[in-house]
């Protein structure tokens, strides 16, 4: 049986060049970067060089603005809880934050926990029909105790690209007349192929993930703009500028840096290829025996995404059938898929019935037109 993967938004394989860069730090250069002897200093050098490489790619000002974590989920926790804890426990302010109803669970669940514990207030913004968050609604919901806006860059189910730069400019304008600054965090875990320069985006905090961009699992980062007050959520020694205790995973950090370097160098080539694949996919949709509707806003979305509505089949029926044919797809974000629930993002924008009959297809540079052809052969037989 053929095995075909259309779920690159869930995870990607580790690239060969990335694996090769990592391997020496598992055995030959295995030292703890906190150790003072040669082995430790060798590992520390790799850590510093990786941080420097990432700092330059992101356009950050200081090495200490790059904080390594175990996952995008941990990065989101550190960004949101770290800021809320600072204001609640040290400044004795019960802070208010603004986010959207279509964030990744690693944002939504963090916020829900903080509210349940009585540590914060929250306003959830609903997306417009184009699945974008209206910046004006942010302005309308600002309170005296608002200290954080957290919005994703690329939506993990539809692929919509939020207007991060425009939102950051709005927040900066609001901050000019405020005593307490409003900080801006963006979960950019799905945005490795887009512009991730922090100055262009205007963010104070930004989450990036390794395994979405052909790097290893188990490593991610949080960009923390100089002067952003965070309390750490993992206590211990002084690693990661005292923001994240624990021995650094040097091989994984080297892998993340290499993956980002390759993406940065090849971004235009990757984008062109993804556009070619997605355009071909869209052409094939028109050949199906029944009308399929497109949930993804094509004019403003990541080229690796297509979320589709199938009027006559449920998501579960489609996934089970395609899996039996050796084709891997998903109904939504991988973190929610085991719950066997319809996409809450599609639900919020298009309603219940549509959410129960939609699938997310996502592409990588391994995706071939022949694989798209096989997918549509299978769909033609099933629909």
Overall form:
globular
Q: Which homologous superfamily in CATH is the superfamily of the largest domain? A: Type I PLP-dependent aspartate aminotransferase-like (Major domain)
Largest sheet: 7 strands, mixed
Compressed to H and E, one letter per element, the order equals: EHHEHEHEHEHEHEEHEEHEHHHEH
Task: Report on the architecture of this protein.
- The chain is α/β, with parallel strands linked by helices and 383 residues long.
- The chain folds into two domains: 4-12 and 267-382, Aspartate Aminotransferase, domain 1 (Alpha-Beta Complex); 16-262, 3-Layer(aba) Sandwich (Aspartate Aminotransferase, domain 2), CATH 3.40.640.10.
- 41% of the residues lie in helices and 13% in strands.
- It has 13 helices and twelve strands.
- It has helices at 16-22, 38-58, 72-90, 105-116, 135-140, 164-175, 198-201, 250-285, 315-324, 334-337, 344-350, 352-355, 369-382, and strands at 4-5, 66-69, 96-100, 121-125, 146-150, 183-187, 205-209, 220-224, 293-294, 305-309, 327-328, 358-362.
- The strands form three sheets. It has a seven-stranded mixed β-sheet with strand order 2-8-7-6-5-3-4, with helices on both faces. It has a three-stranded antiparallel β-sheet with strand order 9-10-12.
- Helix 1 (16-22) runs antiparallel to helix 8 and helix 3 runs parallel beside helix 4.
- The longest helix has 36 residues, at 250-285.
- The radius of gyration is 21 Å and the shape is globular.
């Amino acid at each position: 049986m053929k095995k075909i993967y259309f779920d690159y938004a869930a995870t990607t394989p580790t690239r060969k060049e990335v694996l090769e860069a990592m391997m020496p730090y598992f055995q030959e250069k295995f030292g703890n970067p906190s150790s003072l002897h040669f082995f430790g200093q060798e590992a520390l050098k790799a850590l510093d060089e990786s941080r420097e490489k990432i700092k330059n790619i992101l356009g950050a000002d200081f090495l200490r603005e790059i904080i390594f974590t175990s996952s995008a989920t941990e990065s989101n926790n550190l960004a949101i809880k770290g800021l809320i804890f600072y204001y609640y426990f040290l400044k004795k302010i019960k802070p208010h934050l603004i986010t959207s109803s279509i964030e990744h669970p690693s944002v939504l669940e963090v916020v829900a926990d903080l509210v349940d514990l009585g540590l914060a207030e929250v306003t959830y913004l609903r997306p417009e029909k184009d699945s974008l968050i209206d910046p004006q609604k942010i302005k309308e919901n600002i309170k005296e105790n608002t200290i954080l806006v957290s919005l994703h860059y690329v939506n993990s189910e539809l692929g919509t690209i939020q207007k991060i730069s425009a939102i950051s400019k709005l927040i900066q304008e609001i901050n000019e007349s405020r005593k307490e600054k409003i900080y801006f965090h963006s979960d950019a875990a799905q945005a490795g192929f887009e512009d991730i320069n922090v100055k262009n985006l205007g963010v104070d905090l930004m989450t990036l993930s390794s395994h979405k961009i052909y790097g290893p699992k188990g490593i991610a980062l949080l960009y923390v703009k100089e002067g952003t007050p965070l309390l750490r959520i993992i206590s211990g020694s002084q690693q990661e500028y005292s923001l994240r205790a624990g021995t650094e995973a040097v091989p994984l950090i080297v892998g993340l840096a290499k993956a980002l370097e390759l993406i940065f160098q090849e971004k235009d080539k990757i984008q062109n290829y993804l556009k070619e694949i997605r355009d071909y996919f869209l052409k094939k949709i028109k050949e199906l025996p029944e009308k399929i509707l497109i949930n993804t806003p094509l004019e403003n979305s990541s080229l690796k995404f297509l979320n589709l509505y199938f009027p006559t089949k449920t998501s579960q029926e489609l996934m089970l059938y395609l899996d039996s044919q050796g084709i891997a797809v998903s109904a939504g974000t991988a973190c929610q898929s085991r719950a066997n629930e319809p996409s809450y993002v599609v639900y919020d924008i298009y309603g219940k019935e549509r959410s129960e009959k939609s699938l997310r297809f996502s592409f990588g540079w391994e995706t071939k037109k022949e694989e798209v052809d096989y997918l549509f052969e299978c769909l033609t037989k099933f629909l």
